[in-house]
Amino acid sequence: MFAHVWMRLPLTVESAPGRRTLGLFSSAGPSNWNKVVSDAEKIVGYPTSFMSLRCLLSDEFTNVAMHVKKLVGTQHPLLNTARGFIYDTRNNLQMRGLVVLLLSKAAGPSHTSSDLLSQDMVSGIYPSQRNLAEITELIHTAFLVHHGVVNLKELTASDGLLKDMEFGNKMAVLSGDFLLANACTGLAQLNNTKVVELISSAIGDLVQGIYYESSSNTENSLTTEVSTATWEEQTFLSHAALLAKSCQAALELAQHDDKSQRLAYKYGKHLSLGHKLNSDLQPFVKSNAGEQVSFSFSAAPVVFHRHIIGPERWQDQLQQAKTMRNQLDYSKLLAAVKSEKGVSSAVNLCCYHSDRALEAIQAFPSSEARSALENIASVITKF
Fold first, then answer.
1. Separation between Cα atoms, residue 252 and residue 79, nearest integer Å
2. What angle do CA 55, 187, 256 make, to 5 degrees?
3. Could you give the CA distance from residue 277 to residue 262 in angstroms, rounded to a whole number?
4. Where does residue 10 rank: exposed (0-12), middle (13-18), buried (19+ CB within 10 A)?
5. Alpha carbon distance 136, 99 (integer Å)
6. How far apart are the first and last CA of the chain?
7. Contact (CB, 8 A) for 20 and 280
């Protein structure tokens, strides 16, 4: 469906909003976004930065953190990932869990949740839904850590000693597995087979999506045609499936009907896709003259641009962007993409997904939680 939708959108937008980051919404204006997050956290009862604290402060993970210190002085990405968890100051972390909690509160208890009365709700949210929010964050964190495995064959002397980089890879695998194992244990303790099925399938989606993403983000992929339908499928798997299915699972835990669960799923899906488009757009709308730029070859504006101009013109632009050393000049390639409709198409599609997320949440009763979800869906189109 997506391949047809974006082609029908008007291509008249001239100004635009926004490499993969730790946060769910790292590209919106800092002051606006910080306020949205701060207000939302008050609604769900506590700062969501404490959600996975029990796991992260366990004895086992403390030992992992001590070993990570050995990577200081290298360029191993696991070190930057760890720094991001500790020193993040932009309210980018734990956003998936926050959305799950807000949606749980916005939907409230269902009319058929009599067997849940024994659970004490805190700020209008069941304990099982809070556990689900923690599980969602643990899974996301585990995949971020796993994403820090580097290709040892491509290392340079500036990256660090080979033995240190090999050690970093082992730590990325083992610590990511540790977090994922804790998430799976917590998932089993929810005692809900449908929720287990939903989140397990989301883990499978993440694995498949990240594999596609890694294989497409290489220089060789520049000459490979990627359809818009393929872009949507891969983006959903790697960026939207976990939040969409966690939102649905939150309502399943409160025994809401299938219609409400579908709306929760749609909110999480469209919110995530809108953010990915925003993130992909950042290099194309924030770059200044003379500034060094870099962007993913599978970013939405590039994919749409290639689809619009066709393979022959794309090949010509690639050749023109090559330097004397046969390397790509990203600034020239960025200028070529900005000269066509790929950027405006991505902007329009970002707005489209924001609107679909807003539509999905309107079915729930008016409340502070729903307003917070509306603000989150709206802020991804403000740059």
1. 37
2. 125
3. 23
4. exposed
5. 10
6. 27
7. no
57 touches 171 (CB < 8 A)? no
- Residue 347 backbone phi and psi in degrees, to 5: -60, -50
Question: Domains of the chain (ranges plus CATH)?
Answer: 28-379 (1.10.600.10)
Half-sphere exposure of 324 (CA within 13 A, CB side): 0
Residue identified by tokens 């997506």 is 2
> What size, in residues, is the chain?
383
Residues 345, 342: Cα–Cα separation, whole Å: 5
Q: HSE-up of 350 (CA within 13 Å, CB side)?
A: 32
- Which tokens go with 250? 């939150």
> Are the CB atoms for 376 and 40 separated by under 8 Å?
yes
- What are the backbone dihedrals phi and psi of residue 357, each rounded to the nearest 5 degrees, phi first? -65, -40
Alpha helices, DSSP H, located in the chain = 2-8, 30-44, 53-56, 59-68, 77-87, 95-107, 127-146, 162-189, 193-216, 228-235, 241-253, 258-286, 300-309, 311-320, 330-338, 342-361, 368-379
Name the amino acid, one letter, at 247. C
Of 17-26, 108-117, 181-190, 231-240, least confident by mean pLDDT is: 17-26
Residue 220 has what pLDDT? 53
* 20, 36, 39, 278, 383 from 32: Cα distances, Å: 21, 6, 11, 15, 10
**Do 107 and 369 form a contact (C-beta atoms < 8 A)?**
no
pLDDT of 128-171, one tens digit each?
998 899 899 888 888 887 776 766 666 566 655 666 667 767 77
Which one-letter DSSP state was computed for residue 152?
G
Provide DSSP, 170-229: HHHHHHHHHHHHHHHHHHHHT--HHHHHHHHHHHHHHHHHHHHHHHHSSGGGGGS---HH
